[in-house]
Amino acid sequence: MTAPDPRPVLVASDLDRTLIYSAAALGLTVPDERAPRLLCVEVYRSRPLSYLTEAAAALLAELARHAVFVPTTTRTREQYRRIRLPGPTPSYAICANGGHLLVDGESDPGWHARVRRALAADCASLEEVRARMLAAADPGWLLKERVAEDLFAYLVVDRERLPDTWVKELADWAGPRGWTVSLQGRKVYAVPRPLTKSAAVAEVADRTGARHVLAAGDSLLDADLLLAADTAWRPGHGELADLGWGAPHVTALPECGVAAGERVLREMLLHTRGC
């Protein structure tokens, strides 16, 4: 009889619009009296902000007992720390699209130094890219501009007023300089090409000796994470769904909104038990 493999399964999941949802993103389609019970997992400025279903909360707590669960987000560390997920506090978390690897809540300085060296060697500076973004933006549709962790930049825009060609023109300029540009919802992101979720997840997999990596995500910034996983899922909403993006090992789920988060966790738990 073959002994069970002691190496863990690693589960790396995006958070916003994959596992947790704002009120506007819940996507509830059933009558109010049949709506699922919701658990608030994030409060911002004393107001509830993000939710998952109570069923999803139970699934996540169970999943964390069977696998190494790694929240994997583009959020800054400050934004991530507002989230209180059910189950044990993850030993590892990935913030700023891979720029920070948190170990027991603290950024790993060695990992962050490696990221900084890669960006300095291969990419134009954040200052140059940010200046280009702002110079090309029109105050008529630019709502906000932000720099995240001194690693990447994004604009919050009025989608209806944003010119159809603007993002592509910025991407054409940024590409030769080692940066990628993507439009996700109301945000235009400019991210250095070496700054990826998949690189940070590979580091955690190496440290934990994981035998299998599961992943989930909904946006263009999650594509590298899903491609690098052994098995992955994407919801029926989001930029990847809008593009019809897929890969042989990535399951495109039909569910949208908060129901998709519950389905992702259910599938991950079933797969973890079968690994």
What does this 3D model show about the protein?
There is one protein chain. The protein has helices at about 55-65, 75-80, 110-120, 125-135, 165-175, 195-210, 225-230, 240-245, 260-275; strands at about 10-15, 20, 40-45, 45-55, 70, 90-95, 100-105, 105, 140-150, 150-155, 180-185, 185-190, 210-215, 230-235, 250. The two termini are about 15 Å apart. The chain is of the alpha/beta class. It has 9 helices and 15 strands. A 5-stranded parallel β-sheet has the order 5-1-13-14-15, with helices on both faces. About 35% of the residues lie in helices and about 25% in strands. Helix 1 (about 55-65) packs parallel to helix 9 (about 260-275). The chain is globular, with a radius of gyration of 19 Å. The longest helix is centred in the C-terminal third of the chain and has 17 residues, at about 260-275. A hairpin with a 3-residue loop joins strand 9 (about 140-150) and strand 10 (about 150-155).
